[in-house]
Specification:
alpha/beta; single chain
């Protein structure tokens, strides 16, 4: 079983920040960390996680910038990506392709998100009593070097 550290968390769909934690998934034990949305924050969370001595072999970041901070700490500690630690993130902008190794990401369907947003706004403008509608869109996993093997 692989053990994964998850850095940070996005705001909920209602705009409220979710608790910021690092989760060790194989044992489901939350390890408290600070918000990890920037590279500096991702670096700090990863340092704290490593200092706690919990073994891990994968890291998932909610933003590529937070993951880049974590990646820097991982590599400075002499761990090799993907041999020792595999990494991936949500959002997956082109930033994921400018580093070595390139980062696996769950890329969001941005065009479909924009189309659905416009449709929902136009429906609400036409009928402001229209019930709220939940829309679920699927992201796409783009495998890159950081999870090879």
């Amino acid at each position: 079983m692989r053990t994964m550290a998850v850095t940070g968390a996005p705001k909920s769909s209602h705009g409220r920040k979710r608790p910021q934690r690092v989760w060790v998934l194989s044992v489901s034990v939350p390890i408290m960390g600070s918000s990890a949305l920037s590279a500096d924050e991702g670096s700090k969370v990863m340092k704290r996680f490593i200092e706690q001595g919990t073994a891990f072999d994968a890291v998932f970041g909610f933003t590529e910038t937070a993951l880049l901070g974590a990646k820097s700490v991982i590599q400075k500690r002499g761990l090799r990506i993907p041999d020792d630690v595999r990494i991936c993130c949500m959002s997956g902008t082109t930033l994921c392709t400018f580093v070595h190794p390139t980062i696996t990401a769950v890329e969001q369907p941005v065009e479909q998100m924009a189309t659905e947003t416009c449709r929902l706004i136009m429906a609400h403008v036409a009928d402001d009593a229209k019930a709220t509608e939940d829309v679920v869109l699927r992201g796409e996993i783009i495998d890159r070097e950081s999870t090879a093997g």
